[in-house]
Amino acid sequence: MKILVFAHNHPELHPGGTETVALELSKAYREAGHEALFVGATNQLHREPHPGTSFQAISDSGDELLMWAGHFDRFNMSQVDLRAFVPDMTALLESYRPDVIHIHHLLLFGVELPVLIRRVLPDVRIVMTLHDYYAICANDGVLMQSPDEPCAALGPGGLCKCLEAAKPNDMRLRERFIKTHLGAVDQFVAPSAFLRDVYVRWGLPADKIGIIRNGRPDVEPVPGRASSDVPKRVFGFFGNLTPWKGIEVLLQAAQVLIEREVEFELRVHGGAPFQSTEFIERIETLFKATAPHVVRLGPYKPHDVPDLIGPVDWVVVPSVWWENAPLVIAEAQQHERPVIVTGVGGMAEAVRDGTDGLHIRRNDPISLAAVMKAAADDPGLYRNLAENTRRPPDVATVAKQYLELFIDQHRRVSDPAA
What we know:
Layout: E1 2-7, H1 17-31, E2 35-42, E3 55-57, E4 64-68, E5 72-73, E6 78-79, H2 82-96, E7 100-103, H3 113-120, E8 125-129, H4 168-182, E9 187-190, H5 193-202, E10 209-211, E11 234-238, H6 247-259, E12 265-269, H7 277-290, E13 294-298, H8 305-309, E14 314-317, H9 327-334, E15 339-342, H10 345-350, E16 357-360, H11 365-377, H12 379-387, H13 395-414
Parallel strand pairs: 1-2, 1-7, 2-4, 7-8, 8-9, 9-10, 11-12, 11-14, 12-13, 14-15, 15-16
Antiparallel strand pairs: 3-4, 5-6
GO molecular function, one term: glycosyltransferase activity
EC number: 2.4.-.-
Pfam family, one: Glyco_transf_4
């Protein structure tokens, strides 16, 4: 098969989980004997446009491209530069002529992409992995009403309480606009049952959304500290530092542990790209207040994880929003590290409380501090949880599941009676 893969960025430009998963799958399709072209969207944050073309090289590889798509309406997820985007995308589709198109995100490309694909290539199969809630939520897809009740955008009419400037009619039109264009997709895939259920409640047909878990490259686990009797008091945070990822909650919990004279170390891995000045100032203050117990180690690449996770006993994922399938959880489980995680969304699905990790309440530094102290003081708890850790599927296995889905979709268009 010829497979065209779309993602809203490239891991070399932005180390996000969606981009990483998309690129890894693209490579796995090729390793399985198929032809695959990866196209990542970019904008002025990472690249300047090139005169005369929307496309740019990202590496010496001939199977990875960037498409500059810097004119984008984020509220409506709409591509507004149709005079440049449509001709260039049409030329790509007509020249490559894939059998299957695998979309991982519509940011920057625009929600119009599936309809454009269908118009140019009527018989191509379009499969879209739903990695987050951007289509539902205009507030950066965070669905932040509370962890126990659905965001107001999930209710009738898609009313939004988070964006003060968004009028009720704006939200209704946005919902109808996005759902209409998503109607061109043949099959959706969700990496978690939680995310699938959210989209079904929003109105996507349940029979069009399957579940395929995200995978990780097959690597040997990095051993933990040898002695099972040594208190496991080194905690690690991995990922971009954003308000939604709960880094402030974690640093506030560290303050509580320091005040209570708990012996621990927290190693924070990740940068804070594109964050507000106010947020940067808040976390800088917290980092200074918690040194030297908290060590800030900066941005990293996916291939750095084995070395960085070596000295870490527990991985902490204190996100305050409904995460779907955080890459960091899969990476921790890959290296048999128990995870302390907010017990909501796909996180609660990925980590079993008391079996291979521990749950905390959302946005509660006191709860997090108490769980971290209990974890630090009980080597037996660490040993039991680590032994029960479920390793994520490897990327090759996940790619095989997608390929079987692609073949099934191709068979349906070739034989509608099948």
